[in-house]
Give the backbone structure.
Amino acid sequence: MRMNRNHLVIILVSLLLASLAFPQEASRREKTIFQKGVRDYLQGNYDKAAENFSLVISKLPNSRLLTANYLMLAKTQYKRGEYTTSLETCRRFLDKFPKSSYRDDIRYLMANNYYQLNRLQSAVTTWLSVAETSSEPLLKEKALQLAENSIRYQLDNEALNHLKKELKTPFTRQVLLFNWAERLYSEGNEAKTLALLNEVKTVSNGSEEYRRKAEDLADIIQNKKSNTLRIAALLPLSGPNADVGQALLRGAKMAVSEYNGLNGKNIEIVEFDYKTSLTKALQQMRKIAADPGIIAVYGPVENDITAACAVISDYEKITLITPTASSDALTGLSDYLVQLSLPVSEAGRQLARFVLDTVQVKRVATLAPIDDYFLTMTEAFVEECKLQGTEIAAQQWYYPGDQDISRQFKALKRVGLKLAFRDSLMQVDSSLAIAQIDSLYKIYLKEEEEKLKETHTKLDSADIPVTTFDAFFMPIYNDDINFVAPQFAYFNIQTQLLGNGDWYDPKALKKNKNYVNGLIFVTDGFLNEDSWDYKQFRNSFRTRFKSTPERFELIGYDGFRFVLSALPKGKAVSRSRFVDYITNAAAFKGIYRDISLGPKRFNESARILKFVYGQLLPLR
């Protein structure tokens, strides 16, 4: 059920008034003016809101709601972009009401104003003060996060040195020194990092939490943890996609076990379950980013969750390696995102290029579900065909879940028959105009319909073959194979059938082998079950997990082997440079998936398969 805007505003007003907790003795007039101001504030009417808050301050100086009005006026001025004015209001508040319960809120707002005025040192100092002394957990957390981010990413060394002299309390000094150390570590300056970490550990009366963090990071740098390299596995280990996440993790664990045994290394997978939840994934991503001992992230698997986590990876400068997300433009969201899967549009383009290079294709038709994935793939396939001068004769779409797509096939068939008529006329007289051909076709249809009445046959009947399409691109859902394949054969469209990776289902293909013989499709992997490497992996996997590896176990195994192959030999591994290691890695040949990253950091290696007489043959 969707709330309207007025209901939402009423709820927000109630919540804000409850949080302000003004005295019960306030008069009705005071409350009415204040509530109106809050309502205007929440609706974005900041000018009206400021008028109401200012009215109470100037006309009712003894009001029980005076402090609440000061706070809201300062917030309103901030929202209007009047940062200097808001700052002055905050200062007047602290002068007048030094013991107010809103004191921490005012100081937090002052820090935000300093930040907007580019007075970063003052902002950090004030945020740290709030984080140290506030009794409100949420406010402490927000203030500390803003201060830490500014230290890590925005203040220069001169400003940091100035703050080091200015900050006197153990807590604020430890926060500054530790986050400065993390920044230097990400830049590869290990000597200065260790010096700062030592200062964090020796601060008198300091926080045990920051002392422990400093010791952990120092241990990582000094290889006191058996040269362990930790990679986070950010996967859906529970929830709707748990089967995918668990399978990927099993494959990854096999890869790590082999690598550690062969190379004498100690690579550790740290599991982070996001339960197939976007919110949980973002929470886990924040935990991962806060742990400097984790050098990279393997996951997530879904397109939308990967997109959200990519923003954090870019901000925190930690490499995010998604094994399965295939949406276009994902890598554009973060310079630290790597896609091991073939993007949807790239699959469509590569199939078109292969077919156009190997088969005589001058005219194409398409049929696909109406879905973002299929729209993107079909558009890429069509654009590539057009670039090479191929005619797109007809396109049809069906809604996901529809099992009867006879209407679409009939429409395609009518187009094909008309093209056959046009082609035959053009062979006789190539000077005929389209309008002339259309007129002649109408006459032809009437004659044909009269003839067909005698045999009780319709023009779009399955008895009449269509041979005018050189290729027919039909990307589908895997679940659609068993009802799409028979319909394709029934409507007697005789052409080269093309498809997407969802056709890669040996059991379904063999069941429908008489309908789709000769099908060519693009996929991101191919398993040769007779290969020695696969048999070896399968046997080891069965020994460890008591089951036979399937597609996602293979993707996890190949993907993690590729990641491990990118680690520099005999050198320290830097978290901030991990994306460079992996993007510069050599092309990788896996048991199921080949991986070759291009400049856009996505896998460019597609497999083209052909289904012939019950067998799958790799064409590329």
